Amino acid sequence: MKPLVEVRDLKMHFPIHAGLLRRKVGAVKAVDGVTFSIMEGETLGLVGESGCGKSTCGRAVLRLYDITAGEIVIDGQEIGSVPQGKLRALRPTMQMVFQDPQASLNPRMTVGSIIAEPLDEHTDLSKAEKRERVAELMDRVGLNRAFLNRYPHEFSGGQRQRIGIARALALNPRFIVCDEPIAALDVSIQAQVVNLLEELQDSLGLTYLFISHDLSMVRHIADRVAVMYLGKVVELAPRDDLYDRPLHPYTEALLSAVPEPDPAKAGQTRERIVLQGDVPSPANPPEGCNFCTRCPRVMDVCRRIDPEFREVAPGRFAACHLHDERYQGAGPTA
Amino acid sequence: MPDGDTGNVLEVRDLRTVFQTRGGEVHAVNSVSFEVKPGELLGVVGESGSGKSVTMMSLVGLLPSPPAEVREGRVLLAGEDLLRVTPARLREVRGGEVGFIFQDPMTSLNPVFTVGYQIMEPIRRHMGLGKKQARERAVELLELVGIPSARDRLSDYPHQFSGGMRQRVMIAMALACDPKVLIADEPTTALDVTIQAQILEIVADLRARLGMAIVWITHDLGVIAGIADRVLVMYGGQVVEQAPVHPLFNDPRHPYTRALLRTIPTVTGARAEKLEVIEGQPPILGAAPTACPFRDRCPLVFDRCHAENPAREVVAPEHDVACFHPSARSGTGGAS
Fold first, then answer.
1. Which of A21-25, A103-107, A150-154, B139-143 is least confident?
2. Is residue B235 part of a domain?
3. Scanning every residue of chain B, which has its alpha carbon at the shortest distance from the alpha carbon of A270?
4. Smallest Cα–Cα separation from B257: which of B268, B269, B247?
5. Are B295 and B301 in contact (CB under 8 A)?
6. What is the pLDDT of residues A53-81, one digit of tens each?
7. Do A188 and B278 touch (CB under 8 A)?
8. ipTM, two decimals
9. Which of A19, A32, A224, B183 reaches 20 to 30 Å from A57, CA-CA?
10. CA A253 to the chain's CA centroid
11. Domains detected in chain A
């Protein structure tokens, strides 16, 4: 299997302007050097706390922003430096499902016209052909064809997310970025949408970048998982390895913080690591490792040198000095 | 059930709240009854729209009326019916005997007053302390919830605090007057898991030290499993199951509770190939219920469910369920 998506050293900095002349005084380093690849037909989960840059990363990969630096290759086509005007022709292969189905659907358009909009833009199908395609898509995502002329407000949250998915599928994309597609939904509805996404992947051979803060849902849907902290990927590994034996202390803490829905197991299965303090500001990240201010196993070297993101075991990547022989035995200095 | 002396700090009987909207009435809370014992943590779970928040806000008259109207019921706080007291007395109760923590710490703090002012306000109002004493108490409270250099932070505004810190401020405010009951409405839903873990620790610690009763509303069963003593499961504006935390998770009797427990994936243990789903949508509560609210999504539905609304029946010690199906009584089928 070959990678469909390759991202190398992606950076997305947002400038901060201040003062009378609105001079640039700094930058919010929302995404600061992220590297990963996604194989064809694979789901890569991207997890992290709010503000860690996971959504920005997802949007930058699709070039919804003009990126600061880095290289993005999707389906053999380098798109990192392509001007926005030319990108339009490339958009059919890459689509996005947004977090808030309420905000990402135009309330004044009917469901039929929302789903048909990508077809209007990118194809020259006749009206009848378009109507046929829209009906087919609605079947595919489990919406009743009869609802073609209804408006988004007439649907529930889960159904609205299905409309968003149908719209993303309209042009037969190969790669879909799902930006917290289930965060706004209820538990019982979340499972319906996740199952739909999995079915579509199996039947259409889709590749997903699945962004979420819900670790248990990512464990269910993803093949490999990348953990982000303050603009950087700190660990990337196959799903089972990451959940069973996390390498990075942040991943460990994050996993231990997820409450277990079983009172007998609460606080027993895993030592709960409660991180102190809050995430530092991405405008002013700490020197050395980004996580050194909260890391329970911090060493002296962590405060000086930013650990490199590298392969520490076959298929497992981490950015941590704990997995570097040079610093072994230095011991924690907390 | 006799009034007053039952040893409960809070007792709610047959509460019914209706909203008047342009499209007709919405029966958000239908005959909800429950009680809270001293020092207990009662978890309330349910999907959005199941009536969890509306129930709790009805208790102390926090819903704007109109459109909301509490039609029936009794809310006994240490024997006193809060639905029948004067507005002045209700103001004393709110923030005094009953503390409230809301979901979103940004919108529930006033952005134009300092945090110190906002914490001192209920202390001065309810406890009648002077400015200086109130200030001392505020510092004490902020230290209690783990805010570093509390004294200096009193003059900061809410936007200068992070999300987790703001929620701590909210907790401090709710605790200000030593409430008998603390109602926490999804206090950690807007927070990240690592911050949620911090807040859960603080709450466990405060409970051990202060011993007040807590009603904790959430839709996260994981949180409930970790902290609650007893759990109410709500669906369609009604309580469908009530049990201590262990029986609820190990031997759920209501089909909705069972389905809910199966749909949530975990970070440990075996990973299911496919997630279980509850088909369909939650009900629209346009009228007072005449049949089981879960009937359209229930795998065990039969004729009687369409004709009558099941009442809560005790099926095991301290465990009651509103379901007609025989498996609710015998407990078979809950072995999953």
1. A21-25
2. no
3. B268
4. B247
5. yes
6. 899 999 999 999 999 999 999 998 999 88
7. yes
8. 0.76
9. A19
10. 20
11. 3-327 (3.40.50.300)
